[in-house]
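Re: Re: ligand-bound prediction request (bumping)

Still looking for help on this. To restate: I need the protein modeled with pyridoxal-5'-phosphate bound, output as structure tokens. Inputs repeated here so nobody has to scroll up.
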Amino acid sequence: MNPEIYLDANATSPVMEAAIAAASGALREGFGNPSSTHGTGLRARALLDDVRARARRVLGADSGRISFTSGATEGIQTAILSALCAVRDARERGEPTGQLLVYGATEHKAVPESLAHWNRLLGTGLELVKLPVDEHGQHRLDVLRELAPRAAMVCTMAANNETGAISDLDGIAAVLRETISPAYWMVDSVQALGKLPLTLSASAIDYAPFSGHKLYAPKGIGMLYVRDGAPYTPLMCGGGQEAGLRAGTENMAGVAALGAVLAALEEGSTFRSHDVLVAYRARLADALRAAMPDIVFNCAFDKSLPTTLNFSVPGLSSKELLNLFDAAGVRVSAGSACSSALAVPSYVLEAMQLPGWRTAAAVRMSFGPMADDAFIDAACGRIVLCGQALRHICADTGLVQMTHDGHVTWLVLDKTQRSCIVIDPVPALAERIDAFVRSHACDTLAILSTAGSAGWPPHCTTVMTAHGALDAIGLGARVLVRLPDAAGVSYLLGTCDPAGLLASAAVTHAFTGAAMSPLLPAVVGPQTILCSSRDTGRLPCTTLAARETMRAACAAQRELDRAALARLLADHPQARLVDVREPFEHAAGDTGFQGVQNVPLSRLAERLGSWLTEPAIPLVFFCRSGARSAKAVECMQRLGFASAWHLAGGIALSGGAGTDT
Ligand code: PLP
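Reply:
Sorry for the wait, this slipped through. Here it is.
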């Protein structure tokens, strides 16, 4: 089995035992309403007061107001609402105010979205201005100096959630002071709690929101610090709880749990010291360097939280790295949010002006300050396994599909001759194509385009086809033939007969542009796999036969749960179980299945043809989450293959690799 190594603490953390016990106590005996005046209520009130007093000590807030919220997003709303109401009121009184809402370019989305929302809702009409950061994610103080005199509010996080970059809050405070800025200053302190020293009331910070679930408390509890004298408008009104700052009966289980975390912070021995965390990061970084020697770290270690590592690996997208780690049971997150067809680069890394491939390939690994030696040992061991898995390249590489933003690059390989031909290289894939060719130790014979004949090598042979003699490049036992037409070029891949004729039936694949060449039906067979340069979210493979019948796919009816899969395998012992994950994911963890073939989705085009010739053998695809296997089923159905199935929810939900069941 494959116990989970959770390295995504910046997204959320597990709840510490003491917090679970405290929450459970508040739910059982301490269930009172702190507003009640009887003994049960008074005990709840005492807990509330005690946790608030702890919060004051931990946050260095002997003055100012601290209210309990549902989390940082609520604290951010309240702070922004308060500041904007104050600006609006000052204007109504005819007093001068700032005109700009300045926010760091790497803020959590909750900040700019809330600024825009409340600015619109309150009709304040202020101008939102992004404060740029440098290559280390540090706010550009020179730009702030220009903006600060006209700013109504400045929002600069204490530490970044993607990169761990620590902001120069003293530098920002100095600029605001020296420019006599009228701005209210909010510091999103979510990632700082437990990792950076905090002395809030000694600072000029007006608002500091915190979130419990980033530091071993449950979701749904947070805190907002408001400096004495800073304006305040409640987000929620009602029964006057929290001294009128935030109405609604308090989330006492959450408060109690947060209290346990604050107690641990005060007591000091539960969380590792900064130096220990720095040493842990160094060990993780060494393991990563050993596993992926080309790795690049995206934020300087001396300028970031020791608990956050953000990195990119040339030749691997963040989705691929994520899948690899997940297969090994290591939970990390992408520095970029990925949708199935489009990879959205990280706006945080873009703001740091890192090269495009790094912003699109970033992965964040983060751990909490309760990590211990055993955990870091286990994590490093698992990273080493990931490195070994990465060296697994597909045994029978023949044809590889790489997709970016709907554009497809096809790589045609010959493993005996160690040569390869690239068709329609997408510029954004250059790093990956390069890494792939290098890892397969291939010579690139030609780089071709379906838009024209550029790249065709001067020395080539000629073969006979149904369309007459055509130019060809030898690729081991196969040939790649050029078929130009008025609109572009198609390429036919197949094996010639001894007389040098490439018969239609011997063309296994044809590579086409977005539109199919009118000449193709004469030179390919009904079952030739037609590989397009465009991918509209499906696999870009079809056949002439499938195009004629235009079969509608209904993948939803093709889902199997684990029990249905067992029944299908019992009824059809010859069924093929196909893991469509990349070879390194397949190698990184046990799938939990016997007799599995690994044919990655990116290599399916190579294998489709042979499966189509055996329609009586059912195919069951699976992957990590069910997304890739659903595509494989849909493609097989489009090609007229009736008995293709896939495992709903993938192995992540079915108790296979990467789960701790
Ligand atoms: N700010 C930062 C820096 C964060 O990392 C997060 C959480 O992702 C938030 C704000 C939002 O916090 P919450 O989930 O408590 O609303």
